[in-house]
Amino acid sequence: MRQETKCIEAGYEPKNGESRMIPIIQSTTFKYDTSEDMGKLFDLEETGYFYTRLQNPTNDYVAAKIAALEGGTAAMLTSSGQAASFYSVFNIANAGDHVVASSTIYGGTFNLFNVTMRKMGIDFTFVSPDCSDEELEAAFKPNTKAVFGETIANPALIVFDIERFAKAAHAHNVPLIIDNTFATPINCRPFEWGADIVIHSTTKYMDGHDATVGGCIVDSGKFDWMANKDKFPGLTTPDESYHGITYAEKFGKEGAFITKCTAQLMRDLGSIQAPMNAYFLNLGLESLALRVERHCSNALKVAEYLENHELVEWVNYPGLKSNKYYDRAKKYMPNGTCGVISFGIKGGRENAEKFMKHLKLAMIATHVADAHTCVLHPASSTHRQLTDEELIAAGVGPDLIRFSVGIENVEDIIEDLEQALAQV
Ligand code: PLP
Predict the structure, then answer these.
(1) In the chain, N or C terminus with fewer CB closer than 10 Å?
(2) Which of 66, 109, 217 to mutate to test the pocket of ligand 1 (most atoms within 8 A of CB)?
(3) What is the pLDDT of residues 255-278, one digit of tens each?
């Protein structure tokens, strides 16, 4: 199946007389005829469901669809993108371990790594996605367990060189984890470029309708944990809490990562996505390919319009030929990048504030990457406590406007920009 078809058909195949749509199994628990039957599940001897804190059939249908879209072998849903990022790293890195991460990852992920996971004893080295080979090499330590990057960074819109970072990770016998939220598997499939694990904030384009917060982790099934036995003891040595099962032996390269993540992290931390939310996520996935195509074509027209406007100082969109990352974007995302643009208006903070007041269609929101066009001026909202100098140091200049282009008629979006710019 091609990507557009997978969006509709993958993950769930109803049998004769069963519901056409993915059923919502809104049940915390599951019944068994005998204790032995249930015992086999607890020993991971058989697959099945016993408690929704770990697994639920609705979630698994949706996760299987995302696995198919990414070209992976196994996947799981999480309650949020944050939970997916955390689990993907914590599944292989413990206290005393180290991770190399791109410095331009989403601010929430940066904080999770740099503050919260440091408190748990995991060390991080952040490198620029454009660092030199020497800088990248120097970032690795003997206790490094993973490399983490974002296909298109939110909000810097820097395109990550997946192939280069995958080679570096593999040279050090560790997997590359990619946050593919902004590109989605419609525009980029990181596994084809060497990534080993992909995560998503499904809250963005995958849901696409501002309806549900969620996340997903997908395994490529390619990383050979057993070949690096000493580095990943959690996968390659017996888990006493499951009668001495060794995940990489019992579930192979294809299933070990997600099985361990479900059996241990979901069991102990419980960041499961509600089955009802998984159902809504699936509705979003059904139209993902269509919507992403429209987001990208709208965003390119808006970016070109802004680039030619006399009041606009600069435009950052990797789909623009003038963009520093255009060639890299064409390599990894030949059909389009995403719907998010950032730009600056002449006259700095004051004019940006005026412009924001006059927008009618584009709504002011902290969110991005959904059907509605939305806009944020960080200097007067999320980052308002910072001075102009501090804003520049944070990479969010006082004039910066983040514009997430929706799937409305692009003429309406451009007319809205036109009238708001005219009043500046
Ligand atoms: N990754 C990226 C690229 C994001 O933009 C976000 C949220 O904005 C997250 C992860 C975190 O996802 P969530 O808000 O679903 O927890």
Answers:
(1) N
(2) 109
(3) 999 999 999 999 999 999 999 999
